[in-house]
Design brief:
Layout (H helix, E strand, L loop, with lengths): L2 H7 L27 H12 L7 H15 L26 H13 L12 E3 L3 E2 L4 H13 L4 E6 L2 E7 L7 E5 L9 H9 L19 H18 L10 E5 L7 H9 L2 E6 L2 H9 L5 E3 L2 H14 L3 E6 L2 H10 L6 E2 L20 H10 L1 H25 L2 E2 L6 H7 L17 H9 L6 E7 L4 H21 L2 H17 L10 E6 L1 H16 L7 E5 L7 E2 L17 H11 L5 E6 L9 E9 L3 H24 L3 H13 L13 H6 L2
Parallel strand pairs: 3-5, 5-16, 6-7, 6-10, 7-9, 8-9, 10-11
Antiparallel strand pairs: 1-2, 3-4, 12-13, 12-14, 14-17, 15-17, 16-17
Helix pairs in contact: 2-3, 7-8, 7-15, 11-13, 12-13, 16-17, 16-18, 18-20, 19-20, 20-21
The chain binds nicotinamide-adenine-dinucleotide.
Nicotinamide-adenine-dinucleotide (NAD) binds next to α7 and β7.
Length: 666
Amino acid sequence: MTFKEEILQGIPSQLPTPKSYDTTVNHAPKRKDILSKEEKKLAIRNALRYFPEEFHAELGPEFANELKEYGRIYMHRFRPDYKFYARNINEYPHQSVHAGAIMVMIQNNLDHTVAQHPHELITYGGNGAVFQNWAQYLLTMQYLATMTDLQTLHIYSGHPMGLFPSNKDAPRVIVTNGMMIPNYSKQDDWEKFNALGVTQYGQMTAGSYMYIGPQGIVHGTTITLLNGGRMIAKDGESLAGKVFVSAGLGGMSGAQPKAGNIAGCISVIAEVNPKATTTRHSQGWIDEVTNDLDELVARVNKAKADKEVVSIAYQGNVVEVWEKFDEANVFVELGSDQTSLHNPWAGGYYPVGYSYGESNEMMVNDPEKFKKEVKATLVKHADAINKHTVKGTYFFDYGNAFLLEASRAGADIMAENGIDFKYPSYVQDIMGPMCFDYGFGPFRWVCMSGDPKDLALTDQLACDVLEELMKESPVEIQQQMADNIQWIKGAQENKLVVGSQARILYADAEGRTKIALAFNRAVEDGRLSAPVVLGRDHHDVSGTDSPFRETANIYDGSQFTADMAIHNVIGDSFRGASWVSIHNGGGVGWGEVINGGFGLVLDGTADANRKLKNMLFYDVNNGIGRRSWARNSGAEFAIKREMERSPSLKVTMPNHASDDLIESLF
Ligand SMILES: NC(=O)c1ccc[n+]([C@@H]2O[C@H](COP(=O)([O-])OP(=O)(O)OC[C@H]3O[C@@H](n4cnc5c(N)ncnc54)[C@H](O)[C@@H]3O)[C@@H](O)[C@H]2O)c1
């Protein structure tokens, strides 16, 4: 059977032979055994509804066994044998170009070189699912292959509810992931309802088909370091010769040394897991490795003296680095942490004084002791950082719950008011006021031809647009423009593509729109050989309400509401998005964030021009309007500027009460 025929058949009419467990692939951990006996029966009944009754006698025991072995029913037997990767769009059977593009994006999220646990349909973050099981994948691909531009496919947490008649301007796909009645959004609720097969954790770009590999995090970390560097620069000097200390060379954290090199500093990144260090070293993402603290000090001092751009891994615990650098008087300009502290008791953070193997053993055989040691390490970790910040180090939390867990462990990490932490999160000080408030966020695109030549042309077109815009940009946004021009110029050389031919950069509404118009023109006149998909990370100006991350620099109390993300997804859906998605969870955890995104296919038509102008404008300015209402000065500046340019935009502006008046009232 050809690839196209396999896609078109959906769930096969003959049972495929069972699959053996492939040990060469990275698998998801066994999930919690959380269902009661009655609930397990319900989970099997739920799984069997995808198949005709004649298969049930064979599949029933098999699914019961999967539930027992893995804690979930993945339906492994139905995983297709063809290779998963972002093919050229024309290799997919389709009647709608939009639907064809979505198939490319889905297959990229399940590509073995991209996805973390491809056989369990997990793209990243340990539980970021594209689908819950293989039946959902097969049905969705069949629907996408056969649907027209007069239908919309509705996907409930991976389950394709079906095709409903709509119209050509409507999204072709509507995705929801993990949307719960609010009282059912605790960690164990995810375990239970996911095991029942009725919901999934979509992370941000996993369940929305918008993941582009590690490039996104490299760019975000580069922008954070560059802007962090500017905050501490006394005379506008660069990061040359300055030291950045952090921990973690894992999935996302592994981007830190590469970003440090692009930003032009000396990065020292500690990692306890030798395998993670070796992997990043062999990939060229870290330049040098040492496990000797004296050698590390000497190497860093030399790099400082020579203003060398270099990244050095310390094979060991990060607490040792902070303590040693204090003793040896190595001044650290920038500090952060990217251990997995959203998961402190199960391998996200390792105690000092034990080898990696000893720690893993303790975690399983004596979990109480492990917990005690982790807490003691967090206290030491914070103490060591405090010694550096007194000397002038700028330390920030990088969205990994370091400050939260250190405070829970009783570390000296609270500010004098006892409410705030001593140190800011990166969104509070850097990303929020410097980028999001001005509308700058992680815009991305993917070439549906799969051809690197197309990507090179889009890079050039985007660079031309930004250089042109920069001539007229107000001083407030010049720096962001310059950073992104530098990024796009170095993108080819930095070899950032893993999986689909994709690119990310930060742009505001005007930049995103002009770049999209240039791409659509190039598709129309044939300079680009196939359509281009536009999208973005959910980690952006408008799409995500998350009080400890994306909306951490909102201080009017509304950071605990999720109206912005909901308006965004509804607003994008009728302004031209090809698909939209809204998720509970992502990054900071289930119940902690509502985040949404979109995909928009540029097929070279006048319709695409109309849609992109209307949708991208709203997709960015919705969030700026909300940030401006929260009295964020950058956002007030940006939305006023937009209103001057766009007469039909009328945003309610805040009046500012004087501090003296408010203080006099109580
Ligand atoms: N701010 C953002 O935009 C952003 C983006 C991605 C991830 N994150 C957060 O960053 C964290 C890391 O993500 P990841 O995907 O890299 O996770 P990961 O688990 O793959 O990597 C973390 C690494 O830290 C190492 N580590 C743990 N304790 C250590 C210690 N005491 N000393 C030295 N090394 C230690 C682990 O061995 C592991 O390799 C997560 O909490 C994630 O949510 C934030």
